[in-house]
Amino acid sequence: MKLNPLRRCWAEIDLSALRFNAAALRNLPGPGAGLMAVVKSDGYGHGLEQVAGALRSDVDWFCVANVTEALRILDYLPKNRPPILILSPLLPEEYHTATAHGFSCCVSNANEVEQYAAAAESLGQIAKLHAVVDTGMGRMGASVAEWNSLVRSVEQNPFCILEGVATHFPNADEDPVFTRNQIAKFRSLTESLHCEIHLANSAGMIDFSEEIDFATQARVGLSLYGISPVGETRINLRPVLTLKSRITIIRDIDPGTTISYGSTFTADRPMQVATVAAGYGDGYPRHLSGQGTDVLISGTRCPLLGRVTMDQIIVDVSHLENVSTGDEVILIGASGSETISAFEIAEKSGTIPWEILTGITSRVERCFF
């Protein structure tokens, strides 16, 4: 791993941990099930090309959100790469591009099927489609009443093939009764079909693996990056990303000194404080301000003082014996016996770990090893 000597805020991406997680998750729904790696939103903020490159021999499918992401993978991987499934509906001008490149695409209604068929006919190709049924997500997919009609529209079109069927869980980490009803509904709707069958998400996979054993593919996102969406789990996962920064200045302040915008923190004693080169411009959430947030310096928790600014934060280092400018600061990750997880950062900023990871900005250098 080569690090830019001028780095101020960077993310270290452990690709061996990524592959470890893929191996741990493989076949979770049952023996013989394949693994669909969800790498959308720049590989959950980890780096799309590098994540896909690391997993090209470890997964059976790549799942992305749109044509642009699919093209990025296509340009980066060899021809013997896993197939690419676009999860989101396409814009009208994208049908031709997606079909021309052989991407697999999700459909919710007969109109979409007709659009793909028209593109495929003009190209002399066959559109590879995955029919989606809405069992409770409410975002896309045919209703249960319209499901058979959607499936027939794909199967009966000479320019399309029903490559797969899918649904998605909105509450797998919160409502087991709702989720089990979805599973039962999807099973009954797909039991006579002979194609790829995939549902769930990381939470559904982990908590309902025995109940989705009829799936041919396991579709995973967050857990692939080493974070369980349901807290403690029997599956051993390794966090892939560590977010780091450095101390730029150390100051001694007197009682009564205020810190950062809004003067929301006032020192009640003599303190030593360090300014760290990270802020919400790097994706470190402003909502962490005043929430008992810590960073790690030399394996020790150091409290965040005042508000997070765009480029800098201030932390209390009064309790550290040796601290210097240039020292490494861990914002997300482990040091010694202490860990600050993406879950902890998400909880303290009032959001979810998905948003924390994908919110790390392009200003943050990704370093792969």
Structure characterization notes:
With 369 residues, the protein is an alpha/beta fold. The chain has two domains: 193 residues, Alanine racemase (TIM Barrel, Alpha-Beta Barrel), CATH 3.20.20.10; 128 residues, Lyase, Ornithine Decarboxylase, Chain A, domain 1 (Beta Barrel), CATH 2.40.37.10. The chain has eleven helices and 19 strands. Strand 7, helix 8 and strand 8 form a beta-alpha-beta unit. The longest helix has 15 residues. The chain starts with 8 loop residues before the first strand and ends with a strand. 44% of the residues are buried.
Write the layout of secondary structure elements.
Layout: E1 9-13, H1 15-25, E2 34-38, H2 40-44, H3 48-55, E3 61-64, H4 67-76, E4 84-86, H5 95-100, E5 104-107, H6 110-123, E6 127-132, H7 147-155, E7 160-166, H8 176-190, E8 196-198, H9 202-207, E9 217-220, E10 241-253, E11 258-259, E12 265-266, E13 271-276, E14 294-297, E15 300-305, E16 313-316, E17 328-335, E18 338-340, H10 342-348, H11 353-358, E19 365-368
Parallel strand pairs: 1-19, 2-3, 2-9, 3-4, 4-5, 5-6, 6-7, 7-8
Antiparallel strand pairs: 1-10, 10-13, 10-17, 11-12, 13-16, 14-15, 15-16, 17-18
For the structure shown, list the relevant keywords.
eight-stranded parallel β-sheet; 2 domains; elongated; 369 residues; Lyase, Ornithine Decarboxylase, Chain A, domain 1; TIM Barrel; alpha/beta; single chain
Q: Tell me the number of helical segments per DSSP (H or I, 4 or more residues long).
A: 11
CATH superfamily (homologous) name of the largest domain:
Alanine racemase
Q: What's the CATH architecture of the largest domain? A: Alpha-Beta Barrel
Please identify the oligomeric state.
single chain
What's the helix-strand series?
A: EHEHHEHEHEHEHEHEHEEEEEEEEEEHHE
- State the total count of DSSP E strands: 19
The major pleated sheet works out as: 9 strands, mixed
How many domain regions? Answer: 2
- Name of the top-level CATH class of the largest domain: Alpha Beta
